[in-house]
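[step 3/7] fold_predict: job queued, chain A
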Amino acid sequence: MLFIKVVVNEIPLTFLLDTGVAETVLFSLEETDQVKFFNVEKTLLKGLGKEDAITALRSSGNTLNISNKLIDTNHEVLIVLEEDINFSSMVGIPVNGILGYHFFKDFLIEIDYDKKVLFVYENNAKFRQKISKKYEAFPISLEGRKPYIQASAVLTEAKLAAKLLVDVGNSDALWLFESDVIEVQEPNFEDFLGRGFSGEINGKRGRISELAVGDFVLENPIVAFPDSISIKNVNLVPDRVGSIGAEILRRFNLVFDYKSSILYLKKNSNYGDAFSFNMSGLEIHHKGKQWIPKPIEFSPTKITFQTQGVATPQAASMAFEFKLISVYRIANVRANSPAALAGLQRDDVLVSINKKPAYLFSLQDINALLKSKEGKRLRFEVEREGKIITTEFVLKKIL
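[step 4/7] structure written:
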């Protein structure tokens, strides 16, 4: 997923860049951040998840500044009041909000996944011609201020014309909504798919034979099938059957041209990567940070002093340095998964992985390890209600 620095009313914040969101949404601030907002009124916000709409504040007249080059002095922001919405814990870095349509609407936005760089060009004939020489162009439709593309999906042997939301903020490869023509493929398993503004998203995961966008064909992608309860609050545009997410999009470098309704695609070095999934059954979240003391070894000079004529050694001082470390917890355990059968439970706090302190890993490192290789044995040490529990399990491929 893509994160950029945005200054909101003179306060620097971090936003997720997301083509699947029409509004600019702020949902988290550090205790030290104090952002002034203007022209505030209450509203309701619906999103993915099994719960009902949530309360938010709509504020207009705000200033957004990106790199001192893209400046909007009359920006509308939705401020989410729910404390449970914390995307930072899911990605392992501080995330304050989501930036969607308004970032893309006026410019040519190039996402270079190879170099991990975002380029912003003026939307004129000169730059469009330059991009068209390197990229393949595909028409998109903008509906509800979100981009949709036509693709084809092969389920079993049947080919399905698929209108899909292009969603760089969705970390999965592909979402499909069950219907009369879309059935969950075997094998599959029940899984926690994530969290939206309206709560947890649950469903199933499986594979399909292929997904094609023009002449680009991706074989055996992993597909999430959200259940009907999780998408009940979403107003689906006509004929939409799902979403293309970042696990597919990262295999391309791409350019969004909203004004011309075009998406440009070009293969990058990730194109041939296999589609892998978390074989442990664990959903790990970042719990926050804590200070831990680390003794400092040193050899103090020995000093003696006299007490009633007896030489007594002076007590040596003990020194510590304090280190700020990341803390991880288990947010969800898939039923009958290797981790569940090994006894790991929701809210267990990670102490070590394969005998290495958990804080030496980033959240990305942990997730990569859980996807790494079928048959890999992992040793987890966790803290539960003040007790240390050690267990092992083997990654098992079920798709």
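[step 5/7] annotate
The CA atoms of residues 203 and 273 lie 25 Å apart.
The domain at 135-267 is CATH 2.40.70.10 (Cathepsin D, subunit A; domain 1).
exit 0
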